[in-house]
Amino acid sequence: MATRRKGLGSGAAVQAVMRRQTAEVGQEDAPPPPTTPTSIVAALRRPDAATSTAAGVVSLPVSDIAEHPSNPRAGLGDLRPLADSIISLGLLQPILVVPVEEFLSVHPQHQAAIGTREWVVVAGHRRRAAAELAGQDTVPALVRPDLAAAGSAEAAFVVENLHRVDLSPLEEARAYALLADLDLSQRQIATRTGVSQSHISKRLALLRLPQEAQDDLATGDLTIAEALALTAAPAEDQAEVYALAKARHHPVASAITALARQREETRRAEEAHAQAQREDIPVVDPTQTWGAAASAHRLHDEHDVTAAREDGTLHAAVTSHGLAYYSSAPPAASETSAEVSPRQRRAAATARAAACAQLVAKRPGTRQMTSEISTAVLHGLAHTDCLKLVHAWLGERVGPATPTPLEWAHHLSTDETARTWVAWAMSVAAQELRTRSAETWTADHIAHVRRLIDQAGYLPAPWEQDRLDQARTQHPSPTDIPPGADATRPEGSRQ
């Protein structure tokens, strides 16, 4: 075990050094008189934490000062500007230290981390490190033995760091957690810091996020807004929600909705399978059984279902919306020639348009918009009909209210943000128009409808659900990435 050097220690020896050094300090170097506290920092200072007459400014060797082992700051940031200032002007604000004997009497578990140094920083970690970087042998310090008491150092950390503009959300959360560990309630912390209780609660919730999410928040790959959205999910679901959001390149809120939908679909499918067993109905895969003619075997009318049950031709497929009934009897010619009536198409188009309006009402990240706009341009999807749709969807939300789509587009020419938003919405409109006119659905049509279901709460018509189920059987996809989306994350989702 290392032998501790004999330093200033505490008690009379400390007071003697402070008296001697204080006498050597000129009037111009004396600490400024106390002022009325107005900041968060001042709010945290207790009456007994004010500089006493016995606690003068002393000059201590930098090498004799240890970092506090429980400092909540994960890093000290760029110290060069502060070091340059110290070289030019000196260290204008003293650091706060406690004698090591007092510190270790309260925190003996930190003996190894402190080593043989004589002082422990309570406030001023960046200043001490910058002074060392600047080549300073000593730093001015205020000796505060009272801050060695359990909890005092933690409170001083918050005093030192909470007001810093460069404090990360996780560092701020750890600072509040230190105070919470002292058995302070969130209301008490709010009172002492001058920060709202709701803000403290939201920051503390960040520390309960999955480690992957915390790591991404620390590196900037996850925005604070998205991180807070993730805290709204049940704790047991957060890891799965975040993995889904990253896999689908979707906002966290959409991932929460998608996960809930997936679980509901699974529950319904399990119930449907149990129902088929109870009713002794053979379960089939329609596509494998009847191929392209599967939709002609589908039964939508309760009377037809009853008739097929009586004839012994009733079969069922398990879907995410329950049982879908089919007849194994050969369909009539009229049934095979017209799968979906024009009236059904119009009704579905109207419902999808409402879902599209809800989808485009929220501006997505720039990366997602750029990707989908570029895809629309490459495929020649943007045209006047798209503009008409988007004007109906966003005309009262974005830009000035104008009677015609062309006038509206002209007014948007000077607003880059609105122009990009509308251009992206036109790519969505183009996908909707292509879906309306398609006799058969391709992967792009399926992805468009799936996005409306996932992100806008769209409930597909029975014939649309048939196509979705067939597409899932023929071309299963675990991600259902929106049409035109690339493999990069939306800028507005994770930063």
- Taken together, the total number of domains comes to 3
Would you tell me which CATH topology of the largest domain applies? Conserved hypothetical protein from pyrococcus furiosus pfu- 392566-001, ParB domain
Q: What is the strand tally?
A: 8
**Assigned CATH architecture of the largest domain:** Alpha-Beta Complex
Form type: elongated
SS-based class: alpha/beta
Describe the main β-sheet briefly: 5 strands, mixed
End-to-end gap: 47 Å
Question: Low-confidence parts lasting 5 or more residues at pLDDT below 50?
Answer: 1-55, 334-338, 476-495
Arithmetic mean pLDDT: 76
Radius of gyration over all CA atoms, rounded? 34 Å
Could you give the order of strands across the largest sheet? 1-5-3-4-2
**Helical coverage, percent range:** 40-55%
CATH C-level class of the largest domain is Alpha Beta
